[in-house]
Amino acid sequence: MASPTDNTTAPRPTVPPAAPPSPPPQPAEGLASAAQVEQLADQLSACADNIHARVMRDINRYHGADVPETEKGAARALLEAEAELRQRANRLYTDAAACVVSGLGQPQQHLMALTADAAAKIAHITRIGDSITLVARLLGLAAAASTGQALLVLGAIDRLRAQLGVIALENAPPTTAPPSSA
Predict the structure, then answer these.
(1) Which residue range(s) make up the domain with 109?
(2) 38 and 92 Cβ atoms separated by less than 8 Å
(3) Is residue 135 a part of any domain in this protein?
(4) DSSP three-state, residue 148
(5) Which element (helix H / strand E) includes 95?
(6) Which residue from 15, 65, 78, 164 lies 20 to 30 Å from 135 (Cα-Cα)?
(7) In this structure, is residue 126 part of a structural domain?
(8) How many CB atoms lie within 10 A of CB 171?
(9) Beta bridge partners of 107
């Protein structure tokens, strides 16, 4: 017979289940704050700086001699694109709070890396058409960011990424085939 002090029949206290492990921290969503929109505007301004430096370097290589019409045309197009890129970057600065994109699904760091890659490639692109297309992709990104719509921004990011890939392939050093043993 159990004694009144015997705990064998008393209910046992329940231990709360362990809390599930917290998920690993995710990178900050891109363009999710006014500061991040301003950061994109900074990168676009840096790209515009690189466009200007590139055009001036290309023109100065003629050392005062006549610049061929095709070069003049390309330089004009790039300088017009530079001015437009600066205007769009300035618009992003002033409208940063209105341009916040929710649910982009892209980390801010990735977006900054893409635009930094574009800025670096502007200085080294060998084909003028690639320069113009790359600048057009940057303009598209600036325009998409100013809408605050995630789908437009994602499309612009994809087009920029694809153009950077094309440029990387076209400017890659040639591979040498192993000598054939004929």
Answers:
(1) 34-170
(2) yes
(3) yes
(4) coil
(5) none
(6) 65
(7) yes
(8) 13
(9) 29
| Position 125 in a domain | yes
Per-residue pLDDT tens digits for 24-57? 445 678 999 999 999 999 999 999 999 999 999 9
Q: Is 26 left (phi over 0), alpha (psi -120 to 50) or beta?
A: beta
> Residue 46 CA to chain centroid, in angstroms?
12
pTM here is 0.78
pLDDT digits (tens, 9 = 90+) for 120-157: 999 888 888 899 999 999 999 999 999 999 999 999 99
Q: What is the distance between the alpha carbons of residues 173 and 182, in angstroms, rounded to a whole number?
A: 26
- In the chain, the number of structural domains is 1
Query: 151 Cβ partners below 8 Å, 6+ apart?
Result: none
How distant, in Å, are the alpha carbons of 1, 61, 67, 104, 144 from that of 131?
93, 18, 18, 27, 20
